[in-house]
Amino acid sequence: MDWEFEAEVFQWRGPAPYFFVATPAHVDEFLHAHHGELTYGWGVIPAQVRIGATEVNTSLIPKDGVYLVPLKVALRRPEGIDDGVRVRVELHVGKRSAGSAAEGSQMRTFVIDAAVAIDLATSGATIPPQHSLTAPTLLRSQVLAVVYGSVHRGEIDERAGRKILDDIRGLGIRFLGDRSLEAHTWRLAVQLNWPDIHQVEYIALTQLQADALVTADDKLAAAARAFVKTASPADILRR
């Protein structure tokens, strides 16, 4: 199903900027009436949104009885979108698979987990300028725990461990985490009945801010594909 409508961009206040437009009443009415056909069973609805010349894959998020369209950095940046502006939105919903990140996408922003961050750092990877990395703030502690554990077990020495931490800082990861992300993560974890809310936070952040999730955790990747696109480290490095 396809719609075109005008809407005003608004921002959820917090340390991290989350920008949205709300779907109009006639779209909301259709989405609620056909909710079961359009979702994968977890509340959010996979969608494609175009503003101007830029199109991205996203997930419509239910909040307070209406559906919100997240405006990710990959959409806002090329179209110069900011809080309070009115935009013309082209919206498509349907049961298209979230699929693989490499399939016809124009991706710029990737959420990465601790294992991927460490792999990128230890391999000396250079992130292409058209791509950017983001992660929940908890990644810092997770990386620290993994690297310290390796040093403690004698797998690497302290100097090597500290170099890994320095190289991860050099990746330019944008760390995000505020009340809006916490609330969205909580709702998603409850819907999934997932025991580890830390893992769910990676999916939630991808929905709100990124184009794809890159994780070394096969279980997390399998669950995430119902909500977001997934990618590989090779996709991050592809120019």
Q: What can you tell me about this protein's structure?
A:
The chain has 239 residues and is an alpha/beta fold. The chain has 2 domains: 2-93, Beta Barrel (Elongation Factor Tu (Ef-tu), domain 3), CATH 2.40.30.100; 109-237, 5'-nuclease (Rossmann fold, 3-Layer(aba) Sandwich). The chain has 10 helices and 11 strands. Helix 4 (114-122) crosses helix 5 (138-152), helix 4 (114-122) packs across helix 6 and helix 7 packs across helix 8. The model is unreliable at 96-105 (pLDDT under 50).
CATH topology type of the largest domain: Rossmann fold
Structural class by secondary-structure content: alpha/beta
Going across the major beta sheet, what is the strand order?
A: 1-7-4-5-6-3-2
Molecular shape: elongated
Q: Which architecture of the largest domain per CATH?
A: 3-Layer(aba) Sandwich
Number of domains: 2
Topology order in helix (H) and strand (E) letters: EEEHHEEEHEEHEHHEHHEHH
Number of strands: 11
Beta-strand share of residues: 25-35%
Assigned CATH superfamily of the largest domain: 5'-nuclease
Distance between the ends: 33 Å
Radius of gyration: 18 Å
Number of helices: 10
Main sheet attributes: strand count, strand direction, barrel closure: 7 strands, antiparallel
Q: Approximately how much helix is present in the residues? A: 25-40%
Low-confidence segments: 96-105
> Class of the largest domain, according to the CATH hierarchy?
Alpha Beta
Mean pLDDT: 87
